[in-house]
Specification:
4 helices, 2 strands, elongated
Length: 109
């Protein structure tokens, strides 16, 4: 996996998402990027040049328009469990992969 994309409906049908709403999932998948193009739009814009598509600023799947900093804000978690995440942008490079987990425990009585 090397592209940052929100969870698909098929994945959501058999998994519990960390974030409750589609808007919140999209915001964290795209880390606040706007002006994104689909793969078809990127290919058309760049004359099917894969290298140009990879570098295009509107290729949000590669997080090309992302700031190096992202403040997702304070979010109340409503679902308990262990959730895993990874940085797909840095997964392209062998020495910079960031992966982790978030454990959400029930509140004590």
């Amino acid at each position: 996996l090397t592209d940052s994309v929100p969870a698909t409906a098929a994945w959501l049908s058999s998994n519990t998402p960390l974030f409750d709403t589609p808007a919140l999932r999209l915001n964290f998948a795209m880390i606040g990027q706007t002006g994104c193009l689909t793969m078809a739009q990127l290919l058309a814009k760049n004359n099917n040049n894969a290298g140009a598509v990879e570098a295009d600023k509107q290729n949000c799947m590669k997080l090309n328009a992302a700031s190096p900093y992202f403040d997702g804000g304070l979010i109340r978690m409503n679902t308990t469990g262990t959730f895993y995440y990874m940085n797909t942008r840095n997964n392209n490079f062998s020495n910079r992969g960031q992966k982790g987990s978030i454990a959400i425990l029930p509140l004590l009585p």
